[in-house]
Amino acid sequence: MGSTQVIHRTWGEFTPDDVFEMAVLRSEVFFLEQKIDEEEFDAADRDPSTRHLWISDEQGMAAYLRIVHNPDAASDHDGIADSLGRMVVRANARGKGLAQLLMSEAVALVGDRPLYLHAQDYITALYEKYGFERRGELFQEAGIPHVLMVRHPHA
After folding, report:
1. CA–CA separation, 5 vs 131, rounded Å?
2. Quick one: CATH architecture of 7-112?
3. Domain ranges in the chain?
4. HSE-up of residue 86 (Cα within 13 Å, Cβ side)
5. Rounded to whole angstroms, how far apart are CA atoms 77 and 71?
6. In the β-sheet with 82-89, what is the strand arrangement from edge to edge?
7. What is the mean pLDDT of each run of 10 residues along the chain (155 residues)?
8. Which pTM was predicted?
């Protein structure tokens, strides 16, 4: 595998190749593999405050997540405006710790600000390692069971 350097950029810093690789990775996993049934790309992708983090290897983008700031969503998420989302690891890159590298980098970037995420139910243990706690019942999002998880540093 190539470098495990975590790259982070805003939409305005993306190259055309970055956009293409992100679209391919997210489409392969979310649409083709998981068969999601809702819009996957949205306005948050292009929002100037959104931070995109990823790790590339010789095949391109291998793992990705984004940090979104959305004050309008805070009332539905424990009063928290910042979220992690669109976590994805290419099928042939799984099991190499890339999701953990992305999570470590994202949590470090956010620092002491609280975070929320909508976790696919099977992966909640990963997020618990970074201080996220389950809130509420399972719900369907994009046709897949999810649960709200929140992280309050120093709480």
Report:
1. 23
2. 3-Layer(aba) Sandwich (3.40)
3. 7-112
4. 24
5. 10
6. 7-9, 51-57, 60-69, 82-89, 115-120, 144-151, 133-141
7. 78 90 78 61 85 93 94 90 91 92 95 93 92 91 86 78
8. 0.86
